[in-house]
């Protein structure tokens, strides 16, 4: 793909001095449409093209020179690993160019936190990369996508966003890709960073960061997008759970398992024995939690060292899966080495 001319032309002669931001569209609710503006229950995601999305926000022309690309047009519930590869590779190519100052990605909300964390670990640039989305389709009454898009471009064009890793701009807040999670099925403030809060905020063209990201990311990350993705699956612990799912996954040749445990990553005794058996057969097991915030303490509810489990820390099961896939693809399989990876990222 090549960078196209923006559908939002500069509004003044001084626009040439504005940052050049690539806008990569992947579909999602932000590009969704429904027949009834007041009833969005039957909307279709990903049907509005990137040029139309940008044209709906004329104020963008005073913030940046835009280079739009339509990477995909999917409902993000159907996000696939090959699309992750395409997206990461395209972003790395764009950011390697002196002509591009940052990237904004429009995405569906369902898997945004997973895509954001994947990019946080595999983008090899300190230039800003900002994801945004919407809870209401573009055709809806009071659609939230246009303002979220304007704010995302504003953040990507701002000097203070550089070196912060991959960011999510949503509902006037700026989140780190590592921390952010979707917390509501319907509200326009659906994205939060429950454990330690947002990085900062963006409003009326003003961007303010109140803390910085400390864990390794982007240029400090050892991981890169490869040709193949190891198969990693997630199982959950709950009252009365059996070992059937774990045994079936191991028999199918899964490369790793993340368990969404109860509380502090605790695991039902039946499931735990199945996971111990999986480790004995060379399948790494990462212990996360199904709880919405907090962190899994190493050797807490389960004796990780004795059982051969890896603790996910504050990563939820879905982000833990992303990190485990990248680690396995890089050849990291030993439990101690994997624990170091989870302690680092």
From TrEMBL:
The active site is at residues 29, 109. Residues 20-212 form the L-asparaginase N-terminal domain. Residues 231-342 form the Asparaginase/glutaminase C-terminal domain. PROSITE patterns: ASN_GLN_ASE_1 (PS00144), ASN_GLN_ASE_2 (PS00917), ASN_GLN_ASE_3 (PS51732). Keywords: Hydrolase. Pfam families: Asparaginase, Asparaginase_C. Coiled coil: none annotated. Gene3D superfamilies: 3.40.50.40, L-asparaginase, N-terminal domain. It comes from the Bacteria. PANTHER family: 60 KDA LYSOPHOSPHOLIPASE, L-ASPARAGINASE. Belongs to the asparaginase 1 family. This is Asparaginase. The lineage of its organism: Bacteria, Pseudomonadati, Pseudomonadota, Betaproteobacteria, Burkholderiales.
């Amino acid at each position: 793909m090549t960078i196209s001319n923006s559908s939002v032309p500069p509004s003044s002669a001084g626009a040439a001095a504005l940052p050049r931001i690539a806008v990569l569209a992947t579909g999602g609710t932000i590009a969704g449409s429904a027949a009834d503006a007041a009833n969005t229950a039957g909307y279709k995601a990903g049907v509005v093209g990137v040029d139309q999305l940008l044209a709906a926000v004329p104020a963008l022309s005073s913030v940046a020179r835009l280079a739009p690309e339509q990477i995909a047009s999917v409902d993000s519930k159907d996000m696939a690993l090959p699309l992750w590869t395409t997206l990461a590779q395209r972003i790395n190519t764009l950011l390697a160019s002196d002509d591009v100052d940052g990237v904004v990605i429009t995405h569906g909300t369902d898997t945004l936190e997973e895509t954001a964390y994947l990019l946080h670990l595999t983008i090899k640039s300190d230039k800003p990369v900002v994801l945004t989305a919407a809870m209401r389709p573009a055709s809806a009454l009071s659609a939230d996508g246009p303002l979220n898009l304007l704010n995302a471009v504003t953040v990507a064009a701002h000097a203070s966003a550089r070196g912060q890793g991959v960011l999510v701009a949503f509902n006037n807040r700026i989140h780190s890709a590592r921390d952010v999670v979707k917390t509501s099925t319907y509200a326009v403030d659906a994205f939060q960073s429950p454990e330690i809060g947002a990085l900062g905020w963006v409003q009326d063209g003003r961007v303010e960061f109140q803390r910085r990201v400390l864990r390794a990311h982007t240029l400090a990350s050892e991981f890169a997008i490869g040709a193949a993705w190891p198969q990693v699956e997630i199982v959950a612990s709950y009252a009365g759970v059996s070992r059937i799912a774990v045994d079936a996954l191991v028999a199918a040749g899964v490369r790793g398992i993340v368990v969404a445990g109860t509380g502090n990553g605790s695991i039902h005794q039946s499931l735990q024995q199945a996971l111990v058996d999986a480790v004995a057969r060379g399948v790494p097991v990462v212990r996360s939690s199904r709880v919405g915030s907090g962190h899994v303490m190493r050797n807490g509810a389960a004796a990780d060292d004795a059982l051969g489990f890896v603790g996910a820390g504050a990563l939820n099961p879905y982000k833990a899966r992303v990190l485990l896939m990248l680690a396995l693809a890089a050849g990291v399989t030993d439990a101690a080495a994997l624990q170091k990876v989870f302690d680092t990222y």
